[in-house]
Amino acid sequence: MIERNETARIEAFSDGVFAIAITLLVLDLKVPRELPAGTTLGKALLAQWPVFAAYLTSFATIGIMWMNHHYLFTVIRRSDHSLLILNSLLLLMVTFIPFPTALLAEYYGKDGEHLAADIYAGSFFIIAIIFNVLWRYASYRNRLLGHDIDSATVEGIHKSFRFGPLLYLGALILAFLNVAASVGLCFGLAAFFALPKKK
User: pLDDT tens for residues 78-89?
Assistant: First the structure.
């Protein structure tokens, strides 16, 4: 019980930040007003499909990041100053996600779409790196883990996180060639990280 209290405030604060970041995504969904002549409401809504697609992808990704963060903190039971800094860096990037989401939705199919997709995928690449550093720091010689955490659980998390940065780097590079494929890879990676962790 004492171990859980060490990270309770970190988790509560982090939960609040994740909730705000995921809520901000919806602000880019606009109700069409004063439709131009010859445009129906259906056409106006359909024209916003990149906004809806980016919203769904980022909502899913932030939600899955929250799930993984929550899972990590069922294993991480103690904290120190370095963990607080790493967690703050992670939250910094999580709150940044609404910006590249809006950027991608605005420029998809237009000049600048490749750069917008690159910034979008690059944001997740940085988040994947921070997640890995945070976990590696906490798990090094069981530094901040619960005393009851077995080596199989630790190794399972190592394996699930191992290729995240490399694959997101692939999405970042792919953004220069094919925006849809890059966003699809980001969504696919989010789905992979949503898979239940073996305890």
Answer: 999 999 999 999
- Alpha carbons 51 and 30: distance in angstroms, whole number: 9
Rounded to 5 degrees, what are φ and ψ at 51?
Answer: -65, -45
In 3D space, the residue among 95, 17, 25, 90 whose CA is nearest the CA of residue 56 turns out to be 25
CA–CA separation, 30 and 162 (whole Å): 38
Integer Cα distance of 132 and 165 in angstroms: 8
Contacts of 29 (CB under 8 A, 6+ apart): 48, 51, 52, 55
Asked whether the CA dihedral 93, 96, 100, 102 is positive or negative, the reply is: positive
Question: How far apart (Å, rounded) are the C-alpha atoms in residues 182 and 166?
Answer: 13
Contact between 144 and 83 under an 8 Å Cβ cutoff? The reply is yes
Q: What is the mean pLDDT of the chain?
A: 88
32 or 75: which carries more pLDDT confidence?
A: 75
Query: Quick check: 3 pLDDT over 60?
Result: no
Stated pTM of the model: 0.86
Q: Measured over all CA atoms, what is the biggest interatomic distance in the chain, rounded to whole angstroms?
A: 68
**Contact criterion met (CB below 8 Å) for 83 and 140:** no
